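Good morning C.,

I know you're traveling, so I'll keep this short. The sequence:
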Amino acid sequence: MKPKNCRVGDFRRDQEEKYRAGPKVCEGVFDIFLKKSDEVDCPHLLTLIRCLSMLTRVLSVALFLAPLAATAATPPSVTLHGARFSTEFATSDAQRERGLMFRTELKPDQSMLFIFPDSQPRAFWMKNTLIPLDILYFDGARKLVAMQLNAQPCKADPCAIYPSDGRDAAYVLEVAAGTAGRLGLKLGETLAIEGAPPSR
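The tokens, ready to paste straight into the viewer:
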């Protein structure tokens, strides 16, 4: 197949016009080149070039957005000592203050991850928390630095305080009581986070 009556100047003028082919312009243009014809006129050839250029741009954008969409679709989770837990991120003051208060159940594979904007000694309490918890403190590198195990529910003051034993913590993970013992957790364990949590 060869273009008929198509000169270099035609392509140059086409570029100078900066014509952007839309979907309707491209409708049926590829069918022309599938026909058994030895020649094709210049306008059709130029249209094909524009359509191919548009298709290339669309594919480039799609390839760029695909990983972002996959990340966004990943449900939040954490992995500790080989065990994976679905999780809820508590990143705002209000979310961290409420935590797991008033929840009546936390399944063995569920958790809540508190994410703080800085790393410093932390302390949690169990006021209005209805289920016993293991409270795990992690530093800025997500290394386990302190554990408060089997923290008991408290419905009224005074409620016990469960500190990070003076160790700096930037992440605190709450899981069902008994989880740390079941997994055999030790200080220094690394916490892996999935689901693109907000940056500290």
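Safe travels,
E.
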